[in-house]
Design goal:
heterodimer, A: 202 residues, 5 strands, B: 188 residues, alpha+beta, 4 strands
């Protein structure tokens, strides 16, 4: 009597189970070869698309940041041009303001000199120089410089030249050079020409 | 179930066989369950993956269109001109930001007794101000004293003489000299 006899005589107990296991094997092999290849390809495609989406999102963030910085820059420029305004709108106010400041500082300019309009290349801005001789104490001159620093008008002190210095405590005679800027429309020929990047003087 | 007539048939030790069959059946059931579950997951997971792929493709297409629009908006601005404009105006604003009160305080700190300043003229640099000054002195060492003082000051650097004239060169008041120096008004 062998195990084979037992198996043969009692096949009703193990054969269905064996058939079920076989079916499982067939199914496993089947979808391993049929489905898994397809599914793996889908997973790979999904992973690839997720990577692409990340790249696009990053690109989108960079582009948005660039655009935002461009807009900020344009807004800042617009604000600056609004502040310096046109010569037509600001010149008389500026001169009256300067006259006020010098008087407040205890100095009275008896002569005023004005330079030519100097357009800044490729910019809708014109520089305008104003100079006037002053006579007063050193403290008065310091006071005027302080007023000019605090002024809401866009005025820059470009130079100070001493004409005559008395003894300590006496009046000094000097010429104050100022420069201000006005917003002007850019000449037609300069609107198209690409400018070279400006380098600071050294 | 089993024929236990010992007279008609030999006795077989079946318990080992029965236990084996039961274990085999249990393993088969477990494998069937796992196979079924895997098949279910494969089918539903595949559907989910396809939905996700479609959603990702839609998102990517949306971003592509948005990025293209952004690129067009960015390209519509002349960036080179804008950069130049900002650069130049920053220089102009930098010159306006120079505090003459502080500058004069710093100059007064270094100016030797026998030296007078005739003119001061600043021009902005990337990291400071280039100061051109013309001075008058009666002393032979006035210019050298001023250069030494500028060297020793934390606010000034690289003082360079630009010219010197004495009485014989037509300056009756003494010696007239020019200097160029880099000024950094920052906190010291």
């Amino acid at each position: 009597m062998t195990i084979l006899t037992i198996l043969r005589e009692h096949r009703v107990y193990w054969l269905p189970t064996a058939l079920l296991l076989l079916l499982n094997l067939v199914l496993f092999v089947g979808y391993h070869y049929v489905f898994f290849g397809k599914i793996r390809a889908e997973w790979n495609r999904r992973a690839q698309l997720e990577g692409t989406l990340e790249v696009k999102k990053h690109e989108n963030q960079q582009l948005n940041a660039t655009l935002a910085s461009q807009k900020r820059a344009q807004e800042s420029l617009a604000q600056f041009y609004e502040r310096i305004n046109t010569k037509e709108h600001r010149l008389t106010l500026l001169l009256a303001h300067l006259d006020d400041l010098t008087r407040q500082a205890g100095l009275i300019p008896h002569a005023w000199g004005f330079g030519e309009d100097k357009p800044e290349r490729f910019l809708p801005v014109t520089a305008f120089e104003i100079s006037f001789p002053l006579e007063g104490t050193y403290a008065n001159v310091r006071k005027l410089l302080h007023f000019l620093e605090l002024s809401e008008q866009f005025i820059t002190v470009s130079n100070i030249s001493l004409r005559e210095a008395g003894e300590l405590g006496q009046n000094v005679k000097l010429t104050l050079g100022l420069v201000t800027y006005f917003h002007e429309d850019l000449p037609e020929e300069e609107t198209q020409r690409p400018p070279a990047r400006r380098r600071p003087r050294s | 179930m089993f024929n236990i007539n010992l007279a008609s048939r030999p006795f077989w030790n079946l318990p080992a066989f029965v236990i084996s069959v039961v274990i085999f059946a249990l393993i088969t059931l477990a494998v069937t369950f796992m196979n079924g579950r895997t098949l279910y997951r494969v089918l539903t997971g595949s559907e989910e993956t396809r939905t996700a792929i479609a959603s990702l493709q839609k998102d990517i297409a949306g971003l592509d269109a948005e990025n293209e629009q952004l690129r067009k908006e960015i390209a519509s601005v002349d960036t080179r001109r804008l950069a130049y404009e900002i650069d130049t105006l920053n220089t102009i604003i930098g010159a306006r930001a120079l505090s003459w009160s502080t500058l004069l305080d710093h100059v007064e700190e270094v100016l030797p007794n026998k030296v007078r300043i005739i003119s001061l003229s600043p021009s902005p640099l990337e990291d400071g101000v280039l100061l051109s000054m013309n001075c008058l002195t009666e002393s032979h060492t006035g210019m050298l004293d001023l250069i030494d003082a500028l060297h020793n000051s934390p606010n000034f650097s690289n003082p360079t003489p630009t010219g010197l004239q004495d009485q014989e060169a037509g300056v009756p008041e003494g010696r007239k000299f020019g200097l160029r120096v880099t000024y950094k008004p920052g906190p010291v």
